[in-house]
Here is the input.
Amino acid sequence: MPEQIRDRRRALLELHVHLEGSLSPELLRALAERHGQPGVPAACLTPDGSRYLPVAGFAQFLERYKAVVSVLRTPRDYHEAALGLGAALAGQGVIYAEVTVGYGVMHRLGVAVEPVQRALHEAAAQVAQQQGVRMLWQADAVRQWGVDAAWKALEAALRCGPGLGVVAFGVGGDETALPAGDFAPLLAAAAREGFGTTLHAGETGGPESVREAVLAGAQRIGHATAAGGAPEVLALMAGAGVFAELCPGSNVATGAVAGFEEHPLRAFLAAGVPCCLNTDDPALFGLCLRREYGRAREVLGLLEIEERRMQQQALTACFAPTGIRAEIETLLSTGS
Here is the structure.
């Protein structure tokens, strides 16, 4: 097991990270060259190619994301991306991650999903063996592309299933495009098949968007930021046991909050909403989960006992099967 995760006091869980948003600048350049798309790194990276350019708001972020996704075309591409993410997670002391993969995007681009998922499953096995990090997968649909397209993404996820490491289904994208309630039957179908369910909400929409996501049946909500200023929505989340995948650094990068000090982490903790910190699109925003917790301690007054509790809550909220969950529990508890 790598030295960086032997100290169990440093072990972290990551529940909201997009594979596509984790491509390092080096891998982005390599994939763009492989597929003859030199304009992608030119549009996304600094002139020296060492890091991603900052984004000016959520709309520009979506355009940047689309550009990055366009260089992921083959199972080999996705396999390399997963290996890169696994190495990055290990370096941050992450022992378990549920990684979101754009099934809806693959359908849109004409990429066959099942060969890609087999490649991701193989990469996850390699990461577990070599890096000591467990990676499972969440299939993701894009809200603005509609319910019918989301059903197709779910059907592909069901064909892959836990046998290829798929344990959850979620809907991301532009939360303002369609009401969360439109996707309630989809989430119910996913849950009946044993998948965990998530919705992005409260990132660009208001507290009502988060409330709708809870009522639509999401077990976890990505971001949920806007709920921080709405005590009644926080109470709804706490009462329903809906977990918040908080992403403060990402929210700062896209302008969802004005600065790290403005993130409502403390409101979630005070209201008893189960939650943890996450990096969302770590390469695009230059984020590291270890540093996110460090900033939360420095800027938001996060206490060590609160951080430990968040890891335990993340374990409870994760969608891992029993055997892997027991492994994580052992790693978190050793040395505590």
Summary: The domain at 3-333 is CATH 3.20.20.140 (TIM Barrel).
